[in-house]
Amino acid sequence: MDNCLFCKIVEGSIPSNKVFEDDSFLVFHDIEPAAPTHVLIIPKKHIASMNDVQSEDFAMIGELHRVAQDVAIKLGVASTGYRLINNCGPDSGQAVAHIHYHLLGGTKLGALVQ
Ligand code: 5GP
Ligand code: ZN
Predict the structure, then answer these.
(1) What is the pLDDT, as a whole number, of residue 107?
(2) What is the number of the ligand closest to the CA of 96?
(3) CA of 87 to the centre of ligand 2 (A)
């Protein structure tokens, strides 16, 4: 997708600090970490937000949870705990219109809604 920041990260025209990559997903460190562990898990397919996930995408979005499990183990937070967050739309503060899941951990996380 033209002019999508995360598509550019997928293409490699904008650099990222990658944690994991396969044919369908990319995981990279958030540029402004909100916790000691803060990575973004994205499908390589451009989907603007949770609202735009189509029927044919749900199996892939399910697979994303397997990626989250593997990354949590790799980053050492599987046993201590972590949070997986998807922001969708203005009230959530979604800033990048390419669906992504924040995986946060490495500390006791605060209240979910602030
Ligand atoms: P949102 O608010 O849309 O759920 O989260 C977007 C996230 O993308 C933010 O946590 C922000 O720090 C991160 N981010 C924005 N631009 C970049 C970038 O160029 N590189 C990386 N690695 N993360 C970014
Ligand atoms: Zn995109």
Answers:
(1) 97
(2) 1
(3) 15
Taking only the tens place, the pLDDT of each residue in 62-92 is 999 999 999 999 999 999 999 999 999 999 9
Could you tell me which CATH number the domain at 5-105 has?
Answer: 3.30.428.10
102 is catalytic: no
Question: What is this model's ipTM?
Answer: 0.99
Statement: residue 1 has pLDDT above 90: no
Which pairs count as long-range contacts for 104-107, CB under 8 Å and 24+ apart, including other chains?
104/34, 104/35, 104/37, 104/38, 105/35, 105/36, 105/37, 105/72, 105/75, 105/77, 105/80, 105/81, 106/35, 106/36, 106/37, 106/75, 106/76, 106/77, 106/80, 106/82, 107/35, 107/36
